[in-house]
Design brief:
The protein is α/β, with parallel strands linked by helices. It has a single domain, classed as TIM Barrel (Alpha-Beta Barrel), CATH 3.20.20.10. It contains 9 helices and 8 strands. Helix 2 packs across helix 3 and helix 4 crosses helix 5.
Amino acid sequence: MASIAENIMRVKERIHRAAERAGRSPEEIRLVAVSKTVEPERILAALKEGIRILGENYVQEAQKKIPLVGAEVSWHFIGHLQSNKVKPALRLFSCIQSVDRLSLAEELSRQARLQGKVMPIFLQVHLSEEKSKFGAREEELLDLAGRIATMDGLSIRGLMTMPPYFDNPEEARPYFVRLRKLAESLLAQKIPGIQSLELSMGMSNDFEVAIEEGATMVRVGTAIFGTRPAK
């Protein structure tokens, strides 16, 4: 079994090659190591290999884990956020990548103002027909972004999506193209407060295709930490 260090080296090499194929600089792409269900000891091993952004899916798990790992890295929340978990999420994380509805944004704004901070957020967009996935619909995005951009305590930094899983990563390409074009359309509206948009897209099985289509952030878990135990 490959070590975490070997896995990270391999992932970084794949990022580098994908960026070069797309005529991009590898420095444009940030790697988020998805540490859901991963023990603190193994996360610390990843930090020794240069990992600087960690992605977590559950607030309660992060509450136990972050004090053991430390805050010298940037923690991103990438799971479905319930409104009753907003208050601790704002304290724990430096970015919320999964804002998918107006009611959640309103609660984030309210709590962020109470905590005296401005939280960077990504708008999660639902581009597939999978009922198990979350996110705003394409046709809702412009209105949602316009409303959230006016809210104190929040700063829209990018868009995020999760396409269906495909054995052939090429089948995910259309979803990445759609997110990139949505970002271009959104920027063309020149909404005050939205000057640029990152694209958080691509996971262990398809991040190279995502990079070729403009991803600036890839969320990689299995390719770094190995297969997660079955629930």
